[in-house]
Fold this protein.
Amino acid sequence: MERRKLLLHNFPSYYATNCKDGQNLIFISVGSAANMEMKKEDTLHQKDMHQYPPYIQNIKQMFPMLPIHLILIDPWLTTPSYIVKNLEKEDKRYDIDVEFDNIYHFENSTNVYEFKDYVTYKGMSNDNKEFDITNMLEELNDFCITNNHILLFHDFSGRNTWKLAYYFDKKLNQCDSSIIYDITLRMEGTCSIDLTNPTFSLPLFFDDEKISIFNPYKLTNQDLFLMLNRDDNKHLKQILITVYKKRISMLVDDLYPIYRRFKKHTIDMKKDSSIELASKFIDRVYNDEFYMIDMLFEKDILNKINCYKASIGNEIIDISLLESIIDTMEDCLREYLYNLLRPFDDDEIIKIRIAQLIEIIDENIYKWPQEIRKMIEEDVIQKFGIDLSIVKIFDPYVN
């Protein structure tokens, strides 16, 4: 087990010595066992090609000399994995003097690495049977940024890769990189994904012998709608609409429920300052939502929550601190709403509409999410003639 932990920590260093000169493409696929015995078929359909997604196959066809590294992580991988059998028509070299379970090098510069174990990462539960690869991914990000490599990551085990994508956004959006976490445009949250969906095929750019992948999540909402207005490409429009709709979903299904839980807890504590109830609440927050709070809320909110947790440990219910947390969360909601509505109206009108929506929260805590979703979608139709309902997004946080 220690050997494997060492491997994961040394992962970026391994690639530093094994990537070929020039740009390389690295794809990490978690939960990528083909499970052919369950499907009772001999051939894996392209929509289920988790080990070598169609989008990456297309990139390889467009740029045949681009070295591809397919890192497959799943305790149930077969030996050899499905994609290795599928690529066997190519000449290959089998490498056994490594820490991976198996490595296969093909003459067409395609490399397959098999790692048969459980892994976890930031925001996911860890039962100590899984290796946390978050630090390794952070180092790999830096390595790929420095060397202009392409890095794609997806978890097909049913966990929400989009959470990891948002975690890395703050850093990756500040640099020129082709690093994509969640190859389904953050639409999906299940293992049953149709990888042939054209919306998942992000546009490519080629300049100065460097391939770049367009990442629409780097766009502000204003820039996103400017691009929607001036570009007639239907494929690009579908991608941009998907991103904007996912941002609405984040507000309605993630930020708002967290705010609602804290607001209800504050009301409960004013009625009954029970240390036991407060302790259960804060434990649930840390287990279920601490990562989401870290990712979505700013303004020193975590320090305040930690102070509240410490006060509970001292058997003190600090109502004023809870109210301060609520006020800060509300500020964050207003800011997120402002950025969503900014493409449609001037600042004064937006502020009035936000005030109206925030007021609805106190009247009916279940009405507000539907109101904001309806209002924004109607604005988009009215101003841009775009119907957001054409894009369906799976989201496990939908109420």
